[in-house]
Design goal:
Number of domains: 2
Shape: elongated
Distance between the termini: 90 Å
Number of strands: 0
CATH superfamily of the largest domain: Tetracycline Repressor, domain 2
CATH topology of the largest domain: Tetracycline Repressor, domain 2
Order of helices and strands: HHHHHHHHHHH
Helix content: 55-70%
Strand content: under 5%
Structural class: mainly alpha
Largest sheet: none
């Protein structure tokens, strides 16, 4: 009996063996002892199968890291780092498929369709930990930019994914370094900075503009 996992596994085995997707759902189903109806019960296309593989990697990662005893004590930054490290550790086991999938869609502008479900998972996770960071004042709540934090998180994720795809270092240690530097930089930008203090000071002066008139009346 066909399942989501059995179809994913059969599809991955096929594309890695043949170097391309099956010619038709009919042939794929026949070769895997299922009917077309069974295939379409789970997926509408081969692209949908690929999308689900990527999304399930993120879902599995999030489930695993949230079971850690220390998870509730983690800061938003630490949760982000845990997600990145864990996702790419898990991805090692599917590297051949990941490289195949990324190369197949590398000419796409913006986020490749095959990664759209993955993007939803990553951004939902980002929204959760960003909300936590805002509530704890770990992150700065900026009127026009806070809603864009999750976009920056996804861009950082996409950068690391592309870096990992081209990383030839032993144990992908360069990717680990890219994660550490990239995620820390992203969260540094999310936190309060001298620019925020300057803006607050400007607002104070603007709201208390009457002081300016009094100062002009004095002789120096």
């Amino acid at each position: 009996m066909a399942t989501t996992e059995s179809i994913q596994s059969a599809y991955i085995d096929y594309v890695l063996t043949e170097g391309h997707e099956p010619k038709s759902v009919y042939l794929f189903a026949k070769n895997n002892e299922m009917t077309e109806e069974e295939f379409y019960r789970f997926f509408g296309s081969f692209e949908a199968v690929e999308q689900s593989v990527w999304a399930d990697l993120a879902k599995k990662t999030i489930t695993e890291i949230k079971t850690q005893e220390v998870w509730p004590q983690y800061s938003a930054r630490e949760k982000a780092l845990s997600f990145f490290y864990s996702f790419f550790e898990l991805l090692k086991g599917s590297r051949s498929f990941a490289i195949y999938s990324l190369k197949k869609h590398q000419r796409t502008m913006g986020t490749p369709r095959v990664l759209e479900q993955l993007k939803v998972q990553v951004e939902n996770f980002a929204e959760d930990i960003i909300r936590q960071g805002l509530e704890s004042n770990e992150l700065e709540d900026r009127r026009f930019f806070t809603s864009k934090y999750k976009d920056a998180f996804w861009l950082q994720f996409g950068f690391v994914l592309n870096f990992w795809a081209g990383d030839n270092s032993a144990g992908f240690e360069k990717t680990d370094e890219a994660i550490e530097k990239g995620v820390n930089l992203t969260f540094d930008l999310f936190q309060r900075s001298a620019v925020d203090n300057l803006i607050d000071y400007g607002k104070f002066l603007f709201k208390n503009g009457g002081l300016k008139d009094k100062l002009h009346q004095r002789r120096w």
